Amino acid sequence: MIRVTAAILIHRNKILIARRKDNDPLAGKWEFPGGKIEQNETPEQCLIREMKEEFGIDVVVGEFIGDSMCRYESKIIQLLGYCAVWTGGEFSLNAHAEYKWVSPEQLPDFDFAPADINFVNKLQQENI
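Given the sequence above, the corresponding structure tokens read:
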């Protein structure tokens, strides 16, 4: 099992989502950004590192909001979702094809990676 993090980054009542590049696994799918937890790294440290690498921004990681288990072809991932706050830096696309800020009501309009769908549902049902 591979442990992966996802940032539920909310800014001005909008949520950050990102679309995977065409040459990535799950090409074209939308996701809540994050990445694989490295050895000797906490999920929170992983999100801080990944948001810097993928977008060039600084974040503070907040509340754990849940996890999602998903089987992809030959692997199982556990996606750990955390609320996050953007604290600095200017956005740049270093790992994704595009990003958008969307309302919870807009989330179903996007084709999300399977592991992220639980968080889409949660964000629509709860006031996070």
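The chain has a mean pLDDT of 93. Try to locate this feature in the token string yourself.
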